[in-house]
Amino acid sequence: MTRHVLVLGGARSGKTTFAERLTMRSGHRPAYLATAQALDAEMRDRVESHRRSRAAHFATIEEPIALSKALIAAANHHDVIMVDCLTLWITNLLVAGDNVAHAVDELLATLMALQDVKIVLVSNEVGLGIVPDNAMSRTFRDLAGAAHQRLAELCDDVYFIVAGLPMTLKGEAPLVQPPPKSDA
């Protein structure tokens, strides 16, 4: 039985770097399932930069909405799959007018069914700031928080990343090395 993982953190906290290291140590055939959509020039540049940086290490799968189906298909070819990120996925679902709670139910069922492949889920913790000033943002925050709670309950290991350092919230302490210190 494989241990599924939830990696949470704020923007630019180091959560993706941590999750990538964890994923690379967890299997021989890793996949990177990206949920981002390149809807403007700046995002296209970011997506392309991320593709280049991980090309040598991961098979890349891009799926902004149908996450469960993409995980099931990827599980046929990979022993570990990193999903980056759930908050973008939730945003994509909201914008598309899809039922986020139903999609999260489907994701949980998929994770329970996929016991022969490790899934590393990355998401932004958005509940630590001020209450958003508009209904859409509050809805997003509420949906993300509810999804995180349900996923944290199901996942074997849950980490919260602060300043590049992992805090173990649930499960085993991570077996990944911190990033090398720079001389700058």
SSE layout and pairing:
Blueprint: E1 5-9, H1 15-26, E2 30-34, H2 41-54, E3 59-62, H3 67-74, E4 80-84, H4 86-96, H5 100-113, E5 118-124, H6 135-154, E6 157-162, E7 165-170
Parallel strand pairs: 1-5, 1-6, 2-3, 2-4, 4-5
Antiparallel strand pairs: 6-7
Helix pairs in contact: 3-5, 5-6
CATH secondary-structure class: Alpha Beta
* Number of extended strands: 7
Main beta sheet: 7 strands, mixed
**CATH level-4 homologous superfamily:** P-loop containing nucleotide triphosphate hydrolases
Characterization of this structure:
It contains six helices and seven strands. With 184 residues, the chain is α/β, with parallel strands linked by helices. It has a single domain (5-161), classed as Rossmann fold. Strands 3-2-4-5-1-6-7 form a seven-stranded mixed beta sheet, sandwiched between helices. β6 and β7 form a beta hairpin. α3 packs parallel to α5 and α5 (100-113) packs parallel to α6. The longest helix is centred in the C-terminal third of the chain and has 20 residues, at 135-154. The model has no long low-confidence stretch (mean pLDDT 90). The active site is at residue 50. Belongs to the CobU/CobP family. One of its GO terms (biological process) is cobalamin biosynthetic process.
Question: Keywords, please?
Answer:
184 residues; alpha/beta; Rossmann fold; 7-stranded mixed beta sheet; 43% helix; transferase; adenosylcobinamide kinase activity
